[in-house]
Amino acid sequence: MFSDATRRARVATRPLIGRASRATFRHNGGRGGRTAARLCALALAALASVSSPALAKPHRIVSLNQCADELILRLADRDAIASVTWLSQDPREANMAAAAAGLPANDGLAEQALAYKPDLVLVGAFTDPATVALLRRVGAPVVELDVPETLDGVRRQIRAVAAAVGEPARGEALVAELDRRLAAVEALVDASRPPLRAIVLRPGGFTVGPGSLIDEIMRRAGMINLAARLDVGAYPQLPLETLVMLDADVAIVDDEGFAAPALAEQALAHPVLAALSRRITFAPLPSRLWTCPGPALADAARVLAEAGEATRRARAEK
After folding, report:
1. Domain of residue 270, residue span
2. What's the mean pLDDT in 216-222?
């Protein structure tokens, strides 16, 4: 049975990299015209079904958050998953798109979650607060996840979600898998050599500051985050003039594979960056690898470690 403490549970973390908007749902779900009266009617209709005692191991799990999708797809039985977000079914956005295929998809709305009569609802830090408040008001068992800022935070979140879905052993196995894969990456890095100087360059010219999960993954891959020198916050916008002056060895850029053009992407196609490519290695990395907690973080670390080794070899050959 879920206790009130479980319903209020929060896995204490913070955003990874300024990509939260893609894991956040449109408040209106792109549909419009939903009135407060309709929401209240749906909530009241669902009240009797979701406020009754839930099983210790939930059988109707609904996720309204992309990162929660990934964890329940890795940890829960498939037939216990009632719905995941539509983002989790896009292979450009999600690591578990193949596993999510065929599951009912939602737009992050309370009435969609309640329609499944859930015995567990997973939400995120960027889920509409009104959605979370409504779910709790009708007695739905809600677990809210933020985003870890350290690998220890990732381990805690995996274990917390595993406990919530009634699969603690699977949680421990997933943590062990992450640690094995991280250890394999560290074996690629020669710790006796000075770390490479690196900077993350996101669409719109944003970067990632120190004290973040991204920062820790860069260190695991044998790099130091030059944004730590800037002292301008966790996710600052980086002027191209500053990038030129940083004397980076590696610039980590998005490799999303989106066909549609976007203004935010234009910063990555600036002629200044083309000129810098003569002395800086540009390492493409899909953001999905380090957006959510899980084994894919080790894949991100491996991509960076291999890019670092390629940079060293290229310089040795000159």
Report:
1. 194-317
2. 93
